[in-house]
Amino acid sequence: MATKAYDSAVEVENLKKTFNGKDYVLNGLNLNVPKGKITVIIGFSGTGKSVLLKHILGLLEPSEGTIKVLGRDLAKLSHDERIQLRMKFGVLFQYAALFDDMSVLDNVLFPLKEHRRDLSMVRKKEIAYEKLKQAGLEEKHYAKLPSEISGGMRKRCGLARALALDPDILVYDEPTTGLDPVLTEMVDNLIVETHNHKKGSSTLVVSHDLHAAFRIGDYIVMLDSGKVLLDGPPEVFFQTEIPLVKKFVNMGVHKSHE
Fold first, then answer.
1. Nearest 5°: phi and psi at 82?
2. CB atoms < 10 A from the CB of 60, how many?
3. In whole angstroms, what is the distance from residue 83 CA to residue 87 CA?
4. pTM: predicted TM-score of the whole model, two decimal places
5. Are 62 and 55 in contact (CB under 8 A)?
6. For residue 143, which of 18, 194, 221, 229 sits 20 to 30 Å off, Cα-Cα?
7. Which of 222, 212, 226, 131 is nearest to 174 (CA)?
8. 46-80 pLDDT, tens per residue?
9. Residue 134, Cβ density class (10 Å: 0-12 exposed, 13-18 middle, ≥19 buried)
């Protein structure tokens, strides 16, 4: 069942994207990302997950179709309005994407310095400390460079930076890629804890990890050939007769519910 428009954090209608004028990476994609939920986008490699994410973030322009974020049509926004809207997103990139020459604390301070010039430096540091603590990083690590902390700590630092501007929508791009099972579970738990920390916030996760998707997702979206093949709560995926979705489930997804 499609989510009502006014319940959506993101609305995508008939989205098409071609980079060469003939081959469509996205081909008439329709999607509503529900507000207040953890939505996980899954699909085989090459189905358009990352390209969709870049459109939602306003980093790519559609060849056709419309995208609304929190009710606002991206195509109708000025450059300044688009920047203001992006501040409502917090993004944790695949490999955290920290600035190598900045300390943990300075990485989290960066968006505050860029976008909250109305705040004193004392207040900015208070916010940075608060977000680092929320992400589960101990103060003894704040002065270290990213190369001096573990992979799990870098993820936490990246999350703290994503939280710095108190976003309405948190986006995770393949958050568990390259992590061992213990770290993967840590990141999954962190996603859920962070989502529950801010009431009414929306979480969007692009993931190849089927177990995680069905463990943490309230709403699952499966892409295939540049379109939404199936979307809905996890139980919809266990009841469907669509062959490709059944293949996903038979690859072991059901084990996460055992």
1. -70, -40
2. 18
3. 7
4. 0.85
5. yes
6. 194
7. 212
8. 788 889 999 999 889 999 999 999 999 999 999 88
9. middle
